[in-house]
Amino acid sequence: MRRVLTYGTYDLLHYGHIRLLRRAAQLGDYLVVALSTDEFNASKGKSSFYSYGVRKEMLEAVRYVDLVIPEQTWEQKVDDIRKYNIDVVVMGGDWAGDPRFEALKDYCEVVYLDRTEGISTTDVKRELKS
User: Fold this and answer.
1) Model pLDDT for residues 114-125, shown as the tens digit of each residue
2) In sequence order, what are the beta bridge partners of 69?
3) For the segment 4-62, what is each residue's pLDDT rounded down to a tens digit?
4) How many domains does one find in the chain?
5) What CATH number did the domain enclosing 99 receive?
6) DSSP per-residue codes, 57-126
7) Quick check: is 129 catalytic?
8) Is 56 a catalytic residue?
């Protein structure tokens, strides 16, 4: 069984998220999503519209997702790879070259997928404010 792991906040779940999750799931047999907790987001200076619990519930309803785990720190990634026997870590293309993900190549394959053009949570939030 080939296991895939991705990380994200997945706030205001939209079709770009769904497409990324679908493509990530196609790279293996089992998809784990590490979902940023509210506390971790706050440590990064971010806040989500929906709470961690609601975002987790929405992700668990997506057919491509097999398991949702909390992302609480930047440093947990190697432990996640080991604990869940991960073969591939998938991230959006905007993370390509980031040392935090490049370092994971010592433990598993790392794949960067292009984001869906024309949609982002930032854009959705901006539109909702106008």
Assistant:
1) 887 766 667 666
2) 34
3) 999 999 998 888 899 999 999 999 999 999 999 999 999 999 889 999 999 999 999 99
4) 1
5) 3.40.50.620
6) HHHHTSTT-SEEEEE--GGGHHHHHHHTT-SEEEEEGGGTT-HHHHGGGGTSEEEEEPPPTT--HHHHHH
7) no
8) no
Residue tagged active-site, from 46, 83, 105, 125 = 46
Query: Which member of 44, 83, 105, 125 is catalytic?
Result: 44
Burial class (CB within 10 angstroms; exposed 0-12, middle 13-18, buried 19+) of 61: exposed
User: Is residue 2 within 8 Å of 87, Cβ to Cβ?
Assistant: yes
| pLDDT value, residue 128 | 65
Q: In sequence order, what are the residues at sequence separation of 6 or more whose Cβ sits closer than 8 angstroms to the Cβ of residue 21?
A: 6, 31, 33, 62, 64, 65
Amino acid at 43: S
CB atoms within 10 A of CB 114: 12
**Domain membership of residue 71 as a residue range:** 3-128
